[in-house]
Design a protein that fits this description.
By secondary structure, this protein is of the alpha+beta class. It is built from 4 helices and 19 strands.
Length: 373
């Protein structure tokens, strides 16, 4: 073999050795990085080699939590009024029927008033006479021609006559029964030609300005509905139109059969388009600023003892029991157990034990650059 061939073979051998060395370094480096990644991202392996357990840490902080509650229901009157007769007489006219929408002052029942007009005329004459008698008696008293007793009796007679006059005026006014409010006639129990009796129920009205939308809300939403909160109402008869109302009252008891409670939404209904019996849908939105953590941080989230791991200043974690509130968009409101700013384990907590030393896992996908990897 020539000298040049020997030199060429030697260089090839050197290249092979160098390539093998570089490849070995790359493999070794990759292996080391793999081991580092595994012990920094896998709690079991980190515990095996005695390193801090890798976890994700986020502080408990205040944020806006909004919850939407939806329920269907029907329009009902806001108040019920029973119309009764205050005088006895023959009914001349009942110009409204069942289901009629009436305004304040609308005539509901007309009773024959001839007798009451006569009584008012008589009472008026009696009052005028009593007034004249009192004036005469005062002049006689001033001239010492009448006694104090006579004067007092005349004064009492005038007072009685005034009382009778006022009663006659009220009785005459009561022959025309009018609606006290914007309402709908729910019941009618009188017809023309019938005779009324004192305090007899003639009809029932339901006030519709304002009206109420009454909905059944599930008991699991009881913490989200409060009096005074705003409500958006959609009525099936008016598609695409939203009516804004306010929660007027909430039933104090939950129906044990349906596991729901009634919520009453007041609607102004100034145009009186919303009538009892119309159906629709109510959307209630509650928003409040509350201390919250990601819901995934909770241990036993549906059990009786809800808890979470909190990291102290020495990077040790402690399982702490909490009391939860609103659960919205992946966050859970904290009512007690954790203070604002305390670091809470949100990922990796299933591998933890109380007093474990942890480290923040910088290899997790949540630490990827915002533009993606």
């Amino acid at each position: 073999m020539s000298a040049s061939a020997l030199r060429s073979a030697a260089w090839e051998k050197r290249y092979e050795l160098l390539a093998g060395l570089v490849l070995g370094i790359i493999v070794l480096y990759s292996l080391v990085q793999l081991i580092i990644y595994m012990v920094h991202s896998d709690g079991t392996k980190a515990r095996f080699v005695g390193l801090p357990i890798p976890v994700q840490i986020l502080p408990a902080e205040f944020r806006q939590l909004s919850e939407s509650v939806g329920a269907s229901g029907t329009i009902q009157p806001s108040e019920y009024t029973v119309i009764t007769a205050k005088v006895i007489g023959r009914v001349e006219d009942v110009p409204v029927d069942l289901g009629s929408v009436v305004k304040p002052g609308t005539l509901l029942v007309s009773i024959d008033d001839s007798l009451y007009k006569a009584q008012l005329e008589s009472a008026t004459e009696a009052y005028i006479h009593a007034s004249n008698q009192l004036d005469r008696m005062r002049r006689l008293f001033e001239e010492n021609l009448a006694t104090v007793v006579s004067l007092e009796m005349t004064q009492a007679a005038k007072a009685t006559a005034l009382q009778n006059l006022i009663s006659a005026r009220i009785a005459l006014a009561n022959t025309k029964i009018r609606s006290p409010a914007d309402a709908v006639v729910l019941q009618r129990g009188i017809n023309p030609g019938q005779f009324t009796s004192t305090d007899e129920e003639l009809m029932e009205l339901g006030s519709i300005a304002p009206a109420l939308m009454v909905v059944d809300v599930g008991e699991d939403k009881s913490g989200f509905v409060t009096p005074g909160m705003s409500a958006t109402v959609g009525i099936n008869s008016f598609p695409g139109e939203a009516f804004i109302g306010q929660v007027a009252k909430i039933d104090a008891e939950v129906n044990p059969i349906t596991h729901s409670f009634k919520v009453y939404v007041r609607l102004a209904n100034r145009d009186r388009r919303l009538k009892p019996g119309l159906t629709g849908y109510v959307r209630l939105v509650t928003t409040r600023r509350a201390l919250a953590i990601p819901s995934v941080a909770l241990m036993n989230p549906v059990g009786d003892r809800v808890s979470a791991f909190v990291m102290d200043q020495h990077h040790k974690v402690h399982l702490r029991e909490v009391r939860r509130g609103l659960i919205v968009d992946g966050y859970t409101e904290l009512l007690s157990g954790i203070q604002e700013g305390e670091p809470v384990v949100t990922v990796g907590q299933l591998q933890l034990r109380d007093n474990d030393v942890v480290s923040e896992n910088h290899f997790g996908p949540w630490n990827a650059p915002k533009g993606g990897v």
